[in-house]
Amino acid sequence: MPEKQSPFEPHSHAFGQDIKRPGERRTIIVIAITGMMMMVEIATGIIFGSMALLADGLHMASHTVALGINLFAYVYARRHAHDEHFSLGTGKVNALGGFTGAVLLAIFALVMAGESIERIINPVDIAFNQAILVAVAGLIVNGASVKILGLHRHHEEFELSEHSHDHDHDHNLRAAYLHVLADALTSILAIVALILAKYADLIWMDPLMGIAGAILVSSWAFSLLRTTSHLLLDRQGPDILCQQIQEAIESDGDSSVTDLHLWSVGPSIYSAIISVNTNTPKSPEEYKKRLPGHSELVHVTIEVNRRTAR
Q1: How far apart are CA 78 and CA 13, in angstroms?
Q2: How does pLDDT run across 59-98, given as a tens digit for each residue?
Q3: Which of 67, 128, 152, 293 registers the highest number of CB atoms within 10 A of its CB?
Q4: pLDDT, tens digit, for every residue of 165-183?
Q5: Distance CA 271, CA 299 (A)
Q6: 305 Rama class: left (phi>0) / alpha (psi -120 to 50) / beta
């Protein structure tokens, strides 16, 4: 028997996800740097019997794994961009990578807080010189990683205002950025706490700084969880774009938008389903021509209904 042909006209739903994103290359570099520092710290910690070095090395290992998940999301989305089993492409893999990274950040914050509380209850002797050296080395590596990711130049993209367009960001890259930023913050707090503990005998500053860091990291994690979960659950797209679509469809004074669904299918790309009521129906293509010239509207379905007389 001849192979059954699809009744649908073939067209791509890749929507640019098959192109290697800048964040993927940057993440690879950061993983390489972090991985090398991790191996050095674990090896020297074992050789010299330093728990501070070993603990920091294992900590960096956890973040290397997290960054690896972010890299996997980039590669998976790109390699499966033309897979027809993904009905609207693989753009949401980006949000899924960011969501996973946010969960790991939240776990990291809980571990930080728990360990710090344990240190307050049961203080331990600190090898100040070794610990400060480790913290400084970690700060240098993580500072370089933040610079490589390049997001320090676009910090306004990560403002947590309710008015920000959460849909417009590479959330996978944001998760990677927050991981290295959390590491850098941990190193800074550790340096400050260790210096105060060593020279001012304020031993309690070390675990207190850990709790402060955990609170800040958890706030980043929950912010990222909120924005990425909105994308994964198909929350309505930006109000301004919805308004532009409605005004464009209703510009003839006769048509009215009775239903509008706008959701993200990837970073800065949207799919839309629009229901139109009108006295003089036109073809869906005619209404599509009215839509604002936004390249982010990549998949639009328009239903046209004749307005019923009352």
Answers
A1: 12
A2: 777 778 888 888 888 888 888 877 777 777 788 888 888 8
A3: 67
A4: 444 567 788 888 888 888 7
A5: 5
A6: beta
User: For residue 275, what are its two tokens?
Assistant: 């229901």
The 3-state secondary structure of 47-64, one letter per residue? HHCCHHHHHHHHHHHHHH
Contact criterion met (CB below 8 Å) for 89 and 81: yes
Contact 34, 137 (CB under 8 A): no
Give residue 153's pLDDT band: very low, low, confident or very high (50, 70, 90): very low
Domain limits, the chain = 22-232, 239-306
pLDDT band of residue 304 (cuts 50, 70, 90) is: very high
Helix 92-121 crosses helix 205-232 at what angle (to 10 degrees)? 160
Continuous H helices in 127-238: 128-149, 171-200, 205-232
Q: HSE (CB half, 13 Å, CA atoms) of 45?
A: 19
In three-state secondary structure terms, 270 is strand
Helix (H) or strand (E) holding 78: helix 51-79
**Which overall architecture, per CATH, does domain 239-306 show?**
2-Layer Sandwich (3.30)
CATH fold label, 22-232: Alpha-lytic protease prodomain-like (1.20.1510)
Residue 274 β-bridge partners: 260, 302
Query: Distance (Å, rounded) from C-alpha 257 to C-alpha 250?
Result: 7
